[in-house]
């Protein structure tokens, strides 16, 4: 007797579990019971599990009976003519969906020629085990699984033509590649997904070699000449948005050039680019703190007296300026209304991004790297045929990562570039590597992909042969211009009086426990003291009871809230965060007593 569970609940027992399993599957295929039901037998527990709930990952497979697939050539011809649809194949019991549990009871063949009488299902294509973006990685069967996954994720971060109607859209924080190209080494999914309408990379010449140590630890080296010819050039778009909000009492914001009487008026220089309507003009070159939309708002807190007094009812400044560290050119201005019918102004600012040291580049095989050096074209190594690589890739990135597909793409891309054709690199169904090598040999190059390379600075021939080929490289959205940040003095938090956090808030760079240890190891005690006084404060402390005393600036005298006037009060230099925790202790009715001792 085997126990049967429906969606985790026990519903009964069955005597002949094999007959029961066969009957349920037959009924499902013939449409008697719902197609979204899955049944699974656990041999160790001797239990049958039936699942119909949502949230299960299910995938389609071709049903196999006695080693013969249900899908025939006749069905395929009907599909091609449009006489049959996918849903018809499911309804007719040719294809069925299995979840992860039922797959444990199935034996799935990769290819039709692998079928035996024991097989229960056949893959529609081995390619469908991969995700939509992962199938874009060429020669995916030659790569470690983790790297394949990383390669897929990196493609999602890459800069390209993200949408065709970008000129009329106002999107937050987007990038656009100037000269995107179709990859030389493609997969079948590139054609199915119409990748040529939204490419996100460029075909470049890559040499696998070291160069003065500047491409160690995954870094890459770029040819300055390639950058000047437009390689990896992109534009970064960001909008500034302002709307006229309505407040209680009939008050509302006003978009316009603020008057000098307005509370918080900046200076005429800040408003210099605004036109009469308070909005900046197109193609204006702006940098941080420049006002792009002028706006004034009603005063925040209206007392009962202020409401009747026109003189004191001064509006406050609430213009939209460019954030800290941003610059660019005003690209587009959109004036419209929001859902509530309030005026809405959007100003899109663009900034050209030219590849620089610190930008992130990646191949489609998870081989990501930061630009470590940009070398003048005259100093780049060159091949015997005079080709100068656009990018130098470190040889140490291959052995531990086992991305053999990276190297195969270099050879395939080289063959494709010389033969003037696209190479099919579809995972599990790619062109034969030996055939590609023979074609490369017939085109006048070594079939191993290596070439004789000369030192660009001395003209000497390198002793080693260098692996050179063509590859599809992508620029990622992680650019150093968006992350670069430093500060000396700046804003502090209201509660702790410590520097604010984060680049957007012009925040400080935290010196933590480990950084402190390095200063201690160097014996740099004064530097350490200076680093730890960002919230230095001086407080009066009562000598008698040890609580923080009060300083009356009006009378210029100190007194203790506990002991009164007749005690000695001394100023002590402490961190404001420490003063804050003393106050928190007091709020919990804990008495934090400070025992003062003379420094001298």
Q: Could you walk me through the main structural features you see in this protein, from its secondary elements to its overall organization?
A:
This protein is of the alpha+beta class and 600 residues long. The protein is 18% helix and 26% strand. The chain contains twelve helices and 34 strands. α7 (404-419) crosses α8. The longest helix is centred in the C-terminal third of the chain and has 16 residues, at 404-419. The relative contact order is 0.10.
Largest sheet: 6 strands, mixed, barrel
Average pLDDT taken over every residue:
91
So, CATH architecture of the largest domain? Answer: Beta Barrel
Superfamily (CATH H level) name of the largest domain: DNA-directed RNA polymerase, subunit 2, domain 6
Question: Portion of residues in helices?
Answer: 10-25%
- Lateral arrangement of strands in the main beta sheet: 12-26-13-24-23-30
- Tally of domains: 5
Residue stretches low in confidence (pLDDT < 50, at least 5 long) are: none
The number of helical runs is 12
CATH-defined fold name of the largest domain: Dna-directed Rna Polymerase Ii 140kd Polypeptide, Chain: B, Domain 6
Overall structural class, as computed from helix and strand content, comes to alpha+beta
Strand composition percent: 25-35%
Question: Ends: how far apart?
Answer: 89 Å
Q: Tell me the number of strands.
A: 34
Shape annotation: extended
The CATH class of the largest domain is Mainly Beta
- Radius of gyration over C-alpha positions, nearest whole angstrom: 35 Å
